[in-house]
Write a structure and sequence with these properties.
Elements: E1 35-39, H1 44-49, H2 55-67, E2 75-79, H3 93-109, E3 114-118, H4 120-126, H5 133-136, E4 142-143, H6 146-151, E5 158-162, H7 165-170, H8 175-183, E6 197-201, H9 204-216, E7 221-227, E8 246-252, E9 255-259, H10 267-277, E10 281-284, H11 287-298, E11 303-306, H12 307-314, H13 323-331, H14 338-341, H15 355-382, H16 386-405, E12 407-409, H17 411-440, H18 455-464, H19 474-480, H20 489-517, E13 522-523, E14 526-528, E15 538-540, H21 551-554, E16 557-558, E17 564-571, H22 574-583, H23 586-592, H24 601-610, H25 617-631, H26 636-642, H27 647-660, H28 662-676, E18 681-682, E19 688-689, H29 699-729, E20 734-739, E21 743-749, H30 753-771, E22 779-784
Helix pairs in contact: 9-10, 11-16, 12-15, 13-15, 16-29, 17-20, 22-23, 22-28, 22-29, 24-25, 26-27, 29-30
């Protein structure tokens, strides 16, 4: 029997007669409320109690509403759909459409003035914008959808979109945005945005006069932004590969000029610009990009301040630092990039945008960057993170050259590697097909030649063997594998499929992906100083920070000339040394301070744990796992499972190991207490990591992240400090090609190898000494013609 709700088209709703639709449907609270909270659909608790927003997510909502002086009984609570989808899935579009008339009438008749739409389905139902919740939640409240306004024309109904509280419970870093968004319900309507004053110039003589006027201004600061063929906030390409379309400058609040494409072809203009920018304090948003784009025409320029990095220093969560997001959220600016999107569908070339429209867009960019710096400069000082910003700006100025230089790829070896992968993948595919044929008993069946990349075919085969899975992803299949009969067809198939998936991922990422990104024989990664909460560098296009250690994969990264050599300088156990210093652990200090050429830290620990010389390669690997696992909060049981130890043996090894490092254990206890107290973790470099929502469900994961944060971010920053000093020192001798967390990779002529290696080693050791003299920071140096040889 179909459920029936007044005002809804239940006869055409796919949820109304489904077996998982509740018999008792959640209903809205009484009419007459001024605020409504609209969710997506009932969950288990809502269906059980017949009331929206019950259970953990409802409790979280109540707490935040109360913080803003809003009581639950003052709020009208409802959902986009009143019937529960299976597995708490997002309700299908047809169900949303069927329930939409009911929802709009409920809100109109309830006298609602302000609506909090939680989750994507609710937001899209209540505003006339098809965007995702990620974009819809940004900025001030929006006008309600035309359908609702037509039912209540006398009211100016505002909609605030935000994450669903259930999402915040799964992703605690979303919680600050959730609380901030709810605060918009109480915010006074503020029309503070004022369109900036700007002019564009394309005549070279006029541009020279403009540059002369900018030089004469007493203001030392100048915001700079370039436009090339793509959007730097969303793509990770390199601007020096594209034509320069325009340069924008902001020279005061709300004041901007744009130098157009034609003027930038005049050499006199370029000379004047170079002289101007070398005498100004350059501010930019993601300035590493802008200065990279200007480098081929203007040479080396130094960034002074960066609003993207400032935003990251103030809020370490990634994903919130794009210029357009900040302009809308912090300044109340309109979504001014909407005007250009019709000219560049699906990431088209910015060169296709009519120049007057592009120039206005460029002017808005620099004007917003100026206004953001006015806000951020004060906040950086107030929150004592200005030194972090300045450090990251220095790093940005040097990382720019690693991006410009790139690293060479051995194309002949890349072809060979592709062939090797192709053969291995074919062999694995043949093994799976043989299992399928033998286990089904028929040579001619739809499953006789299975496509391992097709979830439908994989599910169909497993179902034929009595194995039903909701998904064919790696986590699901890895979880199912131990339950299958050892040696049976289904176990053989799943085990081979997982091997195939791993090989195919390597092939697609590091063979096909590298080949796609080749430009003039090199690849050019983009380093992200703002990309992680861990405080470590990230990189994109391609991601080289998390590249596998497989030597065959790394061997394709090679010298650019036959007479050159690559040199890798790598801190030895950098994170362990940072941990020893932070914990002030005398035992670790003693063994990490041994000044013996062949001394190995983990060999010493293995002697302590297993007896002198009574261990092999596998035991040494376990020693490393225990050290870093315990250091970062892992428990004996999980380490034991990974390395094949019984629970009793794992627990015994755990106790023996922790007995060696009591100060580390005490330090860990103090870190956990600090996190629970709500205090941020602050690294020796001034970086902060805050944990905003701690529950019984996520507490263990948060503790693990907290324990790893200080050693990882600090070790990375010591290496980054060395990079800042080293790169200029290598001029005339070689080039830095890569940095990977706690290692630097340089390239030089073979005759200069010892000189370059000495500079790398001495500078990196000295950076460790400048950080602390509690323990030394020795550096291993290796040489090779490819990265895989190092």
């Amino acid at each position: 029997m179909k459920a029936m709700h007044l005002g809804a088209d239940c006869r055409n709703c796919p949820l109304a007669d489904a077996p998982y639709a509740p018999t008792k449907h959640p209903q809205a609270r009484p009419q007459g409320r001024r605020i409504a909270v609209v969710g997506e659909a009932p969950g288990l608790y809502e269906s059980t109690y017949g009331e929206p927003f019950k259970g953990p997510s409802g409790k979280l909502l109540n707490v935040v509403l109360k913080n803003y002086g809003i009581r639950r009984d003052e709020v009208l609570l409802t959902n986009v759909c009143l019937c529960r989808p299976e597995n708490n899935a997002t309700p299908p579009k047809a169900a949303q459409a069927a329930c939409r008339p009911r929802l709009l009438r409920e809100l109109a008749d309830g006298g609602i003035q302000d609506i909090l739409a939680v989750g994507g389905a609710a937001a899209q139902s209540l505003v006339d914008d098809p965007g995702t919740i990620t974009t819809l939640r940004v900025g001030p409240p929006r006008q309600a959808t035309a359908g609702l306004r037509s039912l209540a024309p006398e009211r100016d109904i505002r909609v605030v979109s935000t994450w669903h509280p259930a999402y915040c419970l799964r992703n605690p870093d979303a919680f600050p945005a959730f609380t901030n968004d709810i605060g918009k319900l109480r915010a006074v309507r503020n029309e503070s945005w004022v369109e900036p004053q700007w002019r564009a110039f394309d005549d070279p003589d006029q541009v020279l006069q403009v540059i002369a006027e900018l030089e004469e201004l007493p203001e030392e600061r100048l915001v700079v932004d370039i436009e090339v063929g793509f959007e730097k906030d969303t793509e990770f390409d390199h601007p020096n590969n594209y034509e320069l379309l325009c340069i924008g400058f902001a020279y005061a609040h709300g004041k901007a000029v744009v130098i157009g494409e034609e003027a930038l072809k005049d050499q006199r203009v370029l000379w004047a610009l170079k002289d101007l920018l070398q005498h100004k304090k350059i501010i930019a948003h993601n300035g590493k990009f802008d200065l990279s784009g200007l480098w081929p025409k203007l040479g080396h320029l130094e960034l002074w301040a960066d609003t993207m990095l400032a935003s990251y220093c103030l809020d370490e969560r990634p994903g919130n630092h794009g210029l357009k997001v900040l302009a809308v959220e912090k300044l109340g600016a309109p979504k001014y990039d909407d005007e250009i999107k019709k000219y560049i569908p699906r990431r088209g070339n910015y060169g296709d945008i009519p120049r007057p429209i592009l120039y206005k867009y460029n002017a808005m960019d620099v004007a917003c960057t100026w206004a953001l710096w006015e806000i951020f400069e004060q906040a950086l000082e107030a929150e004592d993170v200005r030194k972090v910003h300045d450090f990251l700006v220095k790093a940005s100025n040097q990382l720019m050259f690693l991006e410009l230089n790139g690293i060479a790829i051995d194309r002949e070896y890349l072809t060979t590697l592709a062939q090797e992968f192709f053969v291995r993948l074919e062999e694995l595919e043949a093994m799976m097909n043989e299992v399928v044929v033998l286990s089904t008993g028929h040579l001619e069946t739809p499953l006789a030649s299975i496509n391992p990349r097709s979830p439908i075919q994989v599910k169909a085969y497993l179902a034929s063997q009595g194995v039903r899975v909701a998904s064919t992803n790696e986590a699901t299949l890895s979880g199912v594998l131990p339950t299958l009969p050892e040696g049976g067809a289904s176990a053989q198939f799943v085990r081979t499929l997982l091997r195939y998936r791993r090989e195919h991922k390597l092939y697609s990422t590091y063979v096909v992906g590298i080949r796609k990104r080749l430009y003039r024989g090199r690849i050019y990664t983009t380093y992200l100083l703002h990309g992680t909460t861990s405080g470590r560098l990230a990189s994109r296009n391609p991601n080289l920070q998390n590249i596998v250690r497989d030597k065959s994969i790394r061997r394709q990264f090679s010298v650019s000339r036959p007479e050159n050599i690559l040199i890798q300088a790598d801190y030895k156990q950098a994170e362990a040394r940072v941990m020893a210093y932070l914990a002030q652990d005398d035992y670790l200090r003693d063994i990490l301070s041994r000044d013996e050429p062949d001394y190995d830290f983990f060999n010493e620990l293995s002697d302590q744990l297993y007896g002198e010389g009574r261990w092999g390669k596998e035991e040494r690997i376990r020693t490393k796992a225990f050290f870093y696992g315990i250091g970062y909060g892992r428990e004996a049981y999980s380490i034991g499972i990974e390395y094949g130890l019984s629970p009793r043996e794992a627990e015994r090894r755990y106790r023996e190991f922790t007995a060696l490092i009591p100060s580390v254990v005490q330090w860990q206890t103090a870190i956990k207490a600090q996190v629970l107290s709500g205090e941020p973790l602050v690294s020796p470099f001034g970086r902060r990591r805050r944990f905003f929502l701690i529950t019984d469900q996520n507490r263990k994961d948060i503790f693990n992240e907290a324990l790893s944060y200080l050693p990882q971010s600090t070790a990375s920053d010591i290496c980054l400090s060395a990079l800042i000093r080293v790169r200029p020192m290598l001029r005339g001798l070689g080039f830095l090609r890569l940095t990977i967390h706690d290692a630097l990779v340089a390239e030089c002529h073979e005759r200069d190898a010892e000189s370059v290696a000495g500079i790398l080693r001495e500078t990196m050791v000295d950076e460790g000494r400048r950080f602390t003299d509690y323990v030394p920071f020795p550096v291993d140096v290796s040489f090779g013609k490819s990265w895989g040889d190092l």
